[in-house]
Amino acid sequence: MPVKIYEFGCLEYLARDLCRQLRPGRSIVGLAGAPGAGKSTLAQKLVAYLTDVLDIHSAYLPMDGFHFSNAVLRQRQLLDRKGAPETFDVNGYLNVLQRLREIVDYPVFVPNYSRTLHEPIAAAIEIKPDTQVIVTEGNYLAANNGGWEHVKEMLDILWYLDTDTSLLKDRLIERQMAGGRSRKLAVKWVEEVDSPNKDIVEKTKLEADALIRLLFDISVENS
Prior knowledge:
22% strand; six-stranded parallel beta sheet; 6 helices; alpha/beta
């Protein structure tokens, strides 16, 4: 069956469409997509809209929080491939997703990733017991090997943010420069690391429940 394609002209329409698909109780929504597609921005704005406007208690869970530390990557000789599928603790991510499927009477703290420190930060995000929707995002949520194939089993909805690939390279270069690299090193990193990872991710898009295309600039969209 061909994958569904949804196009949205504003954040409100996207949020309300999502609400129509939520199951009773707690739902975990996955947002996959290529590096630089805008997943983290969209996920955080979606969580804010659901919580503040629609009064649906929601939380954000970034897959990037499950990066191996630089020390572990160095030990495994993977530091120069940071961001590739094997540089994440996929089992740790799966364990947290499983834990979040169970509604408990205490908060669950999950890691985030610091683009300033270039390291995961443990227990940086609190997911409260009354959370109704958890939006998790990451490159490999729709991947079908390396342990990632079990992620979809933990999700109620899996969307793929289908962004114009011509926009991605400049975004990624800017991200690397904002993280402290010179333009020359940023371009080198994007060409040698981010671009191969993008190719891996794009091959997984048909594993998602639907492709999401935004007809607005999520970086400035507020409603």
